[in-house]
Design a protein that fits this description.
heterodimer; A: mainly beta; Immunoglobulin-like; four-stranded antiparallel sheet; B: Immunoglobulin-like; five-stranded antiparallel sheet
Chain lengths: 111, 112
């Protein structure tokens, strides 16, 4: 099936630092998403993005979070500054219309 | 409360047997996806349904929007079917790129 790539697969950083998570969505997809999964828990929606704009965000999408996709390159999630509770696996997804396809996730550990 | 209630939370099957997973929705959903999350954590797309029933190999899924539920049937379970299965649904009020609301997952163990 369609492949979404995520870089890096793991990231360890100190609390207060900035981190950027990168997503390479399926090439012809138009809609992009970030989800967060804390170990052993369910996946939770963070944000979706279309045509250069955030369409919807959840209460988990704190002010320290931002997303962008400059010039059709990676779709990124930036957290600045990071907090301990940001430790989780972050999944990127993309869709052409409705069915979403997920990347393998980036495991973020904030120390 | 949760909009997507998934059951059972855990399931153990012997190879060759089968069972069903279920998701009940507390709000009107317009589509559902089912995923298998493997041991590496990757989400594998199993089904996308806006209505009705789809079948793929040993898996079959049904989505009934009116009665607010979806099921995933597994038959002739194999060891590689082990993993955590999630349903995820789009609310009816969402736009064309509506967010998915996930269930808490069913951890399936298939034993020989």
């Amino acid at each position: 099936g369609p492949k979404v790539l995520q870089i890096p697969s793991h990231q360890i950083i100190d609390m207060g630092q900035m981190v950027t998570l990168n997503c390479d969505p399926v090439s012809n997809h138009l809609y992009f998403y970030w989800y967060k999964q804390i170990l052993g828990q369910q996946m939770e929606f963070l944000v979706n993005f279309y045509n250069g704009k955030v369409m919807e965000k959840s209460k988990l999408f704190k002010d320290q979070f931002s997303v962008e996709r400059p010039d059709g390159s990676y779709f990124t999630l930036k957290i600045q500054p990071t907090a301990l509770e940001d430790s989780a696996v972050y999944f990127c997804a993309s869709s052409f219309y409705a069915e979403q396809f997920f990347g393998p996730g980036t495991r973020l550990t904030v120390l | 409360g949760d909009q997507v209630e998934q059951s059972p939370s855990a399931l153990s099957l012997h190879e060759g047997t089968g069972s069903a997973l279920r998701c009940n929705f507390t709000t009107t959903m317009r589509a559902v996806q089912w995923f298998q999350q493997n041991s590496r954590g990757s989400l594998i797309n199993l089904f996308y349904l806006a209505s009705g029933t789809k079948e793929n190999g040993r898996l079959k899924s049904t989505f009934n929007s009116k009665e607010s539920y979806s099921t995933l049937h597994i038959r002739d379970a194999q060891l590689e079917d082990s993993g955590t299965y999630f349903c995820a649904a789009e609310a009816n009020s969402g736009g064309s790129n509506a967010k998915l609301t996930f269930g808490k997952g069913t951890k399936l163990s298939v034993k020989s």
